[in-house]
Amino acid sequence: MDLSDTIAPTSDQLDAVDLLGGPRTFTVERVTAGNDEQPVNIKFAEFPRVWRPGKSMRRVLVACWGPDAATYVGRRVTLYCDTSVRFGGQEVGGTRISHLSHLDKRRQVPLLVSRGKSAVFVVQPLVETAESRIAEFKREWKTADPERRKVIEAEVAALTGGTESAETTAGGE
After folding, report:
1. Where are the domains of the chain?
2. What is the pLDDT of residues 51-107, one digit of tens each?
3. How many CB atoms lie within 10 A of CB 169?
4. Residues 7-40, buried b or exposed e (16+ Cβ, 10 A)?
5. pTM for the model
6. 133 φ, ψ to 5°?
C-alpha cells in the first residue's frame, strides 16, 4: 500500500510537503495569472494542483527561461523541498528548483536571501533518459484520470517506439 496519497495536504497548490519524499520532475502544461499575493499559477501535467512559485523561484525561471511564460509550456522542471527556507524567522521549508529543461549549461542566479544579504542559486540542466521518463509515467499512472492516461500511453509509445504496451509499461506493477 502506498501511503503517499493519505498524507497529501488539503491545499489548492503544490506545497513543499508534497516533495518530502524526494525531488519530482514535472511538465509545464500552462501558466496563468494568480492574485496579488501569489501572482503566478503553473499547472503541471503530472500533478492535480498548481504550483505557485515564490518571488525567488520566479526570478530563477525568468533568468533561465525568459519572461514570456507562454514559452514555458512543455518544458520540464525538477522541484524539491528545501527545509532551510525561512519565513517569519522560522525554518518552515519551501519549494525550490534544482533542474530545468532547455538549459545548455548550469546557471547561477543571484538572489536576495534576506535584507541586504544575497546568495547565488544554482540550477542544473535537466537531462532525461527514456527510462527515467517511463519510470515517472509509471508513478503518475496510479493517480491519473482517464484523459491523462491517454496522454501517458501516447508518450510511452513514443518513447518505446510502440514496442511496449503503454498500460503495462506505465501502469504495471
Report:
1. 4-125, 130-171
2. 999 999 999 999 999 999 999 998 999 999 998 887 777 777 889 999 999 999 999
3. 20
4. eeeeeebbbbebbeeeebbbbbbebeeeeeeeeb
5. 0.77
6. -65, -45
φ, ψ for residue 125 (rounded to 5)?
A: -65, 140
Q: Apex CA 14: angle with CA 9 and CA 15, to 5°? A: 65
Report strand pairing: 94-100 vs 117-125.
parallel
Integer angstrom CA distances of residue 105 from 1, 80, 157: 40, 20, 29
Contact 85, 92 (CB under 8 A): yes
Measured over the CA atoms of residue 89, residue 91, residue 92 and residue 97, the dihedral's sign is positive
Q: Could you report how far apart the first and last alpha carbons of the chain are, in Å?
A: 12
Residues 6+ apart with CB under 8 A from 165: none
